[in-house]
């Protein structure tokens, strides 16, 4: 059974009203959890994700916006499934970003892996990146025609050597050149 809570919906009572001080609330809304909650969360492909679950049969799913958001955060921060499940249950900034209340959140690593598999098989990750990029460009009012396109980050493919290995390789190459001469 599908559980979907629209992130644009306003609640009668604020779920986080007593959980944060005014300073903490301000820092959360101005940091990545606030941007994620206000901009990114509503861009996630929940309609496509919901196709994998019955509307009226079976056990209720985790809230689908929060699970899609957790998969995105997990990949962005390089978490394992276990770390993502722990963040879903215990990290208040992640719960704030995913628009979850602090009340008894539970999730296991197997559940994270199941949703991650759906993202892989349906190629939802590309769709998420396109939607989120477009939403961030619109929200931040970026002018892409004025951005430089010639500067890219290039990562070196050089091997890293310890001093001993570097010395060994240098001597081996020197001896090889010496034999040729």
Describe the protein in words.
By secondary structure, this protein is mainly α. The protein has a domain of 123 residues. Helix 1 packs across helix 2, helix 4 crosses helix 5 and helix 4 crosses helix 7. The longest helix has 18 residues. 20% of the residues are buried. The model has no long low-confidence stretch (mean pLDDT 79).
Search tags:
56% helix, 181 residues, mainly alpha, 9 helices
Number of helices: 9
The 3D shape can be described as elongated
Total strands: the figure is 0
Q: What is the CA-CA span between the terminal residues? A: 76 Å
- The ordered H/E elements are HHHHHHHHH
Mean pLDDT: 79
What low-confidence regions span 5 or more consecutive residues with pLDDT below 50? none
Kindly name the structural category. mainly alpha
Short description:
By secondary structure, the chain is an all-alpha fold.
């Amino acid at each position: 059974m599908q559980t979907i809570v629209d992130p644009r919906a306003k609640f009668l009572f604020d779920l986080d009203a007593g959980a944060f001080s005014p300073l903490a609330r301000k820092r959360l809304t101005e940091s990545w959890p606030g941007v994620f909650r206000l901009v990114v969360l509503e861009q996630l492909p929940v309609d496509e994700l919901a196709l994998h679950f019955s509307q009226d049969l079976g056990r209720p799913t985790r809230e689908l916006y929060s699970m899609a958001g957790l998969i995105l955060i997990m990949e962005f921060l390089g978490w394992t499934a276990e770390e993502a499940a722990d963040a879903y249950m215990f990290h208040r900034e992640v719960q704030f970003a995913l628009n979850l209340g602090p009340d008894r959140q539970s999730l296991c690593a197997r559940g994270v892996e199941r949703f991650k598999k759906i993202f892989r098989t349906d190629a939802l990750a590309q769709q998420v990146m396109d939607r989120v990029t477009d939403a961030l460009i619109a929200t931040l009012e970026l002018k892409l025609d004025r951005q430089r396109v010639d500067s890219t980050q290039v990562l070196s493919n050089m091997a890293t050597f310890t001093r001993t290995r570097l010395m060994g390789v240098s001597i081996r190459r020197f001896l090889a050149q010496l034999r040729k001469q």
